[in-house]
Amino acid sequence: SSAQPRNGLISPPLLQPAAVRNTPLFLQYLTAQLHQQVPGGLVLWYDSVVQSGQLKWQDELNDQNRVFFDSCDGFFTNYNWREDHLQRMVAQAGERLADVYVGVDVFARSNVVGGRFDTDKSLELIRKHGFSAALFAPGWVYECLEKSDFFQNQDKFWSLLERFLPTHSICSLPFVTSFCLGLGTRRVCYGKEQAVGPWYHPSAQETQPLFGEHKLAGDSRGWVKTHCCLTDAWHGGSSLLLRGLIPPEVDSVAVRLFSLHIPVPPKVFLSMVYKFEGSTDVQVALELTTGDASSCHVGGMLVLNETGSRHSPRPLRVPPTRLARWASSCGQQLSGGWIQRCYEVNLRGCLLQDLLVSFSRPPGSREEESFICRLGEIQVVDASSLLAPLPRVQNVTISQIRWLPLITGSEGLPTRLLLSCTLHWSYLLLRARCFRIHCWKRTGSSSSVAESPETEKPTFLGLAFANQYRVVDLAVEAAGFGQDGRVEFLVEPVPREGFLVPQAEWGKAVLLFSVPQ
């Protein structure tokens, strides 16, 4: 009989007795194979079919479906549960409480505890009993609410769930983010507009802050709110907008952006690219918190209070010569009105815990201060990594070549061609933010060793986030008789630390072509 869809999942209405007997064995086999082929992969059984083979949603783990739970990594319950279902499941799950994923329909269809902006009510009960959660259709925020308010509604939805969700800390350096969402109304590269028009590239998304709002404790009216904004960008398509208020009774307000869990090297450099909206004398700075390790020693920093572990890094005033490429823009006004500040911190035996941005009132002012600040980029970099030479793009190859005529001349021969091909190269991906692909196109003499026109600016083709790039329908002038056509492709690495790599160090590959004889 045919399968019946339910809330986007397809469940068979009835399994034959033989199929029911074989299903646990199949689940065991599937689970073992998945673990072997995809480390970290999970097989979850959805609460639909019971051990008799009938389609009966139970809204819980019980004796009628436990055989499937015992044969795979976990169990995904249906959504129409109440707290008594959870109470019964505690005994059923035993030591595998976390392997039971209690279903939550964000659309709040049928008889559910909470959905939509009340989804936190469901999460609260689930966490109370120690289970995992399976959020179904969080696209409700986009599908059912005003599209123009999507970012604000998205922040509101997830902030309500924040206390019930695990925080994934940043665990390695370098840590670099421009807050790009992987989309935008234009594309910007280090403050310079690269292309105008909407774009979307999931691989371009960079790490987003987890903490969207901070209010001062007690009766103070101070606050800071953050949200992603497509209006302006330093690199990519978006930036982080911070709005806040410094009340008269305090000197500063701060918001935690990222949780860190990094045993730090002896020296760390930090960088922040920012600009204020409108005229203001409010000052902005990066701050770090360190763990409670008894051996932690902090040097080269101003400790904000003697009992805490929150520190303001010392500005990096005169960078060493070998760091000149990284620090060349520190303290300067950049393209688009952006400003870059660089900091250094000397640590020994410490664990970085949090990264914050603080806003301080102007010296001597006791007035209420409001501000709007835009963050374009934050970097936390191991100083030793800036002393090592940058790797080079190597072994650039051209394959899967296809030519199509675009314009045909009076003699029936094409005068313009469309070229499609695939570029491959070697580079350690962990060291690159992305790759910018360029080309030169020229026709001329039959010399196959013609030099590239170094004084000309190459044509930018696009971005790659892997060691390959597909060129599609690139318009090229056809070569005349006795001439070679030449297309030179250039692969520019964009290091995570934000260096601009000189063109002489880009990877290159040349494609020569001629008219068939």
From TrEMBL:
<dbReference type="InterPro" id="IPR057882">
    <property type="entry name" value="ENGase_C"/>
</dbReference>
<dbReference type="Pfam" id="PF03644">
    <property type="entry name" value="Glyco_hydro_85"/>
</dbReference>
<dbReference type="InterPro" id="IPR005201">
    <property type="entry name" value="TIM_ENGase"/>
</dbReference>
<comment type="similarity">
    <text>Belongs to the glycosyl hydrolase 85 family.</text>
</comment>
<keyword id="KW-0378">Hydrolase</keyword>
<dbReference type="InterPro" id="IPR032979">
    <property type="entry name" value="ENGase"/>
</dbReference>
<dbReference type="InterPro" id="IPR001357">
    <property type="entry name" value="BRCT_dom"/>
</dbReference>
<dbReference type="Pfam" id="PF25529">
    <property type="entry name" value="Ig_ENGASE1_C"/>
</dbReference>
<dbReference type="GO" id="GO:0005829">
    <property type="term" value="C:cytosol"/>
</dbReference>
<protein>
    <recommendedName>
        <fullName>mannosyl-glycoprotein endo-beta-N-acetylglucosaminidase</fullName>
        <ecNumber>3.2.1.96</ecNumber>
    </recommendedName>
</protein>
<dbReference type="GO" id="GO:0033925">
    <property type="term" value="F:mannosyl-glycoprotein endo-beta-N-acetylglucosaminidase activity"/>
</dbReference>
<keyword id="KW-0963">Cytoplasm</keyword>
<feature type="domain" description="BRCT">
    <location>
        <begin position="64"/>
        <end position="158"/>
    </location>
</feature>
<keyword id="KW-0326">Glycosidase</keyword>
